[in-house]
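Model it.
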Amino acid sequence: MRILVTGGAGFIGSHLVDKLISQKNQVAIIDDLSSGRRALINPQAKFYQISINDDLSSIWRDFKPEIIYHLAAQSSVAVSLRDPMADAATNIMGSLNLLKHCLGTCHSEAEALSEAEESPCFVMPKVVFVSSGGTVYGAAKKIPTPETAPTNPESPYAVAKLTVEKYLTALRISHTILRLGNVYGPRQDPGGEAGVIAIFIGKILAGDTATIFGTGQQTRDYVFVADVVGALILAGQNSASGPINIGTGLETSVLQILRLIDPKIKPEFAPARPGELQKSCLDVRLAKQLFGWQPKVSLAQGIKLTKKYFEK
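Modeled.
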């Protein structure tokens, strides 16, 4: 298959690209390297250093993707609260630009044709969209939270993810939506604003203090990156549109995470950050029912593998 991965130089995207190439697919990457890293790009993939907000028509003419995994995003809830317009510019408008090309309207105005199907760059690919199970439900009443629960986004980041979900349905694009829990593992940026496990490990290895915002009792559903990649692969092969939760169904507090990384570490506490949920955990039974997916890596195993990566 010819598979395009947006954000393929990033944490999850680079793992996905490696797996797709190992399965003998032809893979292309779109990444502007604003947060992705060149060192993570698989040399067997075709790489386009370009923003999803730019004109992508040459990529359609050149590569003709059959499946698109859309992972490129501004990924921090905190950043979205500080600058919601910048978040929307990437996560909504950038996504719409990508979907426009999926619909065949990827020619320039000067080249416009009466029928989209006649465009030389027209291919109608399937889109696998990475949404956020950790944010779109908001303060859910039911924990673990099923896909049937009401959505109540409490940050611009979550609003943007839910908006793109609705555009995929409204535009009648073939798609599967995966709502991910809190993904962690090797290659995650320890200097970023998202990914508490990578941040804690980075701080500890550098001899710095681990800071907990709030009480540390807030919980999340932490899922290992290799398990997420497995779900993404199955979603590309499956006709279910979703949304489908991808997590573990287990709640773990921030304090528990720190104890699993290093029980001897004493954290500093800082005021809670605005917009942060106190509880988040996903019911993942639907993924097993639809395409036989379930997480394989325990949190203790995943943290051990992540620590080994950063120690190297």
